[in-house]
Amino acid sequence: MPLVPMRVLLDHAAENGYGIAGLNVNNMEQIQAIMMAATETDSPVIVQASRGARKYSNDAYLRHLMLAAVELNPSLPICMHQDHGNSAETCFSAIAQGFTSVMMDGSLSEDGKVPSTYDYNAQVTRKVVEQAHAVGVSVEGEVGALGGIEDGHGAGLSQAEAMEHLTDPDQAEQFVADTGVDALAVAIGTSHGAYKFSRKPTGDVLKMDLIEEIHRRLPNTHLVMHGSSSVPQELQDIINAFGGAIKQTYGVPVEEIQRGIKNGVRKVNVDTDSRLAITGAIRKVFAESPGKFDPRDYLKPAREAMAEVCKARMIAFGQAGNAGKIKPLTCKKMVDFYKK
Ligand SMILES: [Zn+2]
Asked: Which of 185, 202, 217, 250 could be bridged to 197 by S-S, CB 3.0 to 4.6 A?
């Protein structure tokens, strides 16, 4: 089947009470890892590429990797999503490359760093929604700002500063009415990158109650949790056991994500966990077999390690077992849906 708009996947997830991991791709091994996990678990797939990924791998390579995934896995619904589009132009160029979903992150100005105004955010997101929906492509927006920086995108807020930029439920409601987005990323105290919390997060720093409040007000909007890697201790330990230097850190516990999924969260962005798994596996080969020099000797275990993490998340979020149940719709069909 052709690439599927994200809205189709999130609607099915909402009707059936599960969440879907939004997994980032920069190269061939990462998309292969995701597809290995999805095939094994019969999971619908959201693969996403940041601006940094598009620059790193080049749009043409990236597009063909996605098309290869589609060709090799005809029974799995796969969505290709632009992660953190910084401007309408970034989103439109993604659509031109065949992405079936885009995030217009107008919570930051076009430089991807400085928090913007509500009016700018609503206006630019509305513009993207109009043009994306006209061709059946889904749109994710964001209100509030996360901590940290990922791929050069982010205000670089500390965890404490991020607590001052949490999503305001009134504004979230207004934003959805003003823009017509399919999905809304909310800021609830999480940060991008590996360093999210300095201890296992409790309700004072990870505001799951805020998700519940937003979901009460917007029961028909798909909510998105960013910066939601769990940063497992064992992955930190593997890296550090083989010469790495990851400072002790804590991510978003899987059980908190599951609580979010019970309250309208349909997309959960996970990138750091994949990165940690890959790095740990490569470090292990380098440390244990310093004589090896064939990239396949370390990329193969790296790919397997990432697939394991992806598989665990797909099962925990409940998307496993659902690929075959989704009636795929093309972007073309979605044009009629949005016209109604
Ligand atoms: Zn994000």
From this structure: 250
